[in-house]
Amino acid sequence: MPIEPDNFGNVITSHLSETIGYTPADECETGGPNEVVIVTEPWLSSDDFSLQKQGLVQLLGCWPSPSFVARMIECGTKVAGISPVIAPRVANRVVGFGGPLRVKPDASWGVIGLGVVGTEVARKLTASGSSVEIADVRTPRSGILAELNIRRQSLDLLVAGSDVVTLHVPVGPTAAPLISKRELNLMKPGAVLINTSHSSVVDEQAVVDALSDGSLGGYATDCPGQPILQANLDEGSALKSSGKLFITQNALVNQIGAAQQIAKYVVANVEAFSDGSDIQGIIEPIDFPTIGDPSFWSSRMSPRQD
């Protein structure tokens, strides 16, 4: 599956060059045992590296290539992303979308994806008193549901019962797209959708159609694809003037201090790897659910169903 360019990783490189001497040329070097390779994703293919076991790949981009990550993990290399350091920023942005989307204080929120970012979003929402349910292809880590006082649902039940649905899933075959016309038809009339994951995880044309016919109350995103961008640029469309479509102008790459903060995080991870300490943001393979798990019967979160 083609992945759009991720320019955020490129912005961080200048800050890394000032701290650990990193330059873009290092992206194409081959690592060996106990070596670190810093990668600006996702333009590299899985054949660009031949890493030995025990090495570390630190990804800088927001959209890691699934095939690249899978190959690195398969050969025994640790792969770390930037989710821990960007999660609070994403959570603030999701909650901030509630204003222009006219989300009521007593609205029920459905969080799809309970990784590092989704967990932070759920934590921020529950702290504000919002009702939150989650859906994830993976079984949540022990205790997290009780800690946040949230309940797990299948994807279908979550989209059907939520006033706001917010997406925090990785790019990949279980989310291409995750929200299609089928899922949009399951949503409550007037419910709203937030996407901070990637344009590929939703059928954007179906979103435009649902906004136009009024069945979807609003759509907010910071990762628009061509259908959403075109709808936003079409001065003659009713959608343009409806106030239902929101595209943030404050993406991570533009946020004050974001690149510097991530650069410091990367340096800390490199140092932790060198001295044998715990590395933040380790990416783990996704284990698909078994029979009896709510996600087994979800519409598109499991490969067991069409």
Task: Give a brief outline of the structure.
The protein has 306 residues and is of the alpha/beta class. 33% of the residues lie in helices and 12% in strands. The chain has helices at residues 8-19, 66-74, 83-97, 116-127, 144-148, 155-161, 181-186, 204-213, 226-233, 258-275, and strands spanning 36-39, 56-59, 78-80, 108-112, 131-135, 151-152, 164-167, 192-195, 218-221, 245-247.
Question: Can you tell me about this structure?
Answer:
The chain has about 300 residues and is an alpha/beta fold. It folds into 2 domains: about 10-80 and about 255-275, no CATH class; about 85-250, NAD(P)-binding Rossmann-like Domain (Rossmann fold). The chain has helices at about 10-20, 65-75, 85-95, 115-125, 145-150, 155-160, 180-185, 205-215, 225-235, 260-275; strands spanning about 35-40, 55-60, 80, 110, 130-135, 150, 165, 190-195, 220, 245. The strands form 2 sheets. The chain has a 7-stranded parallel beta sheet with strand order 6-5-4-7-8-9-10, with helices on both faces. The protein has a 3-stranded parallel beta sheet with strand order 1-2-3, with helices on both faces. α1 (about 10-20) packs across α10 (about 260-275), α3 (about 85-95) packs across α4 and α8 packs parallel to α9 (about 225-235). The longest helix is centred in the last third of the chain and has 18 residues, at about 260-275. The radius of gyration is 20 Å and the shape is globular.
